[in-house]
Specification:
Order of helices and strands: EEEEEEEEEEEEEE
Helix content: under 10%
Number of strands: 14
CATH superfamily: Fucose-specific lectin
CATH architecture: 6 Propeller
Structural class: mainly beta
Number of domains: 1
Shape: globular
Distance between the termini: 31 Å
Strand order of the largest sheet: 1-2-3-4
CATH topology: Neuraminidase
Length: 165
Amino acid sequence: MKIEPSGAQYSPALAAYSNRVWLVHISFDGEPYLNTHDGTRWSTWFSDSLNWDVDQGVALAPQGGRLWRIATGKNKSLFTSTSDGGPGWTYRGVRDPWKASHSPALTTLGDTMWIFLRGLDGDLYAGTYNGTWSGLHKVSNGAAKPMDAPTATAHQNKIYVMYRR
């Protein structure tokens, strides 16, 4: 599938939610675009920026009956929003004082959503959400130092995080 309407400036994000595959990307005009697949065909593209000022890709993960979308802004803050299944997003705030140098990674294990990010100091950080956000903590006491954005997934009751170093 070709990413439209103006191409993808950063890697797209995929998630399965509400019996559809969700694809979100940041286009060359700096706007997030959403497209979903119902198993038969792709929907039309929806633009919904919530006035975010982002210059990184987004991360997606379902949690608590919602699909979460989190992106790193130009100011390195983390912008959050959720969808209840429609094309519109509900703004959930900025995760200050959390700062990231690249796009975060999200995954869900059970009822808990995990976020992994490369901090401005180059260390890998992790946090959780299960109705409220935990604090961030360094992974492996600061020994994990990714070059750029991490990626994460959950499988058989374990979380796997990968990054370049």
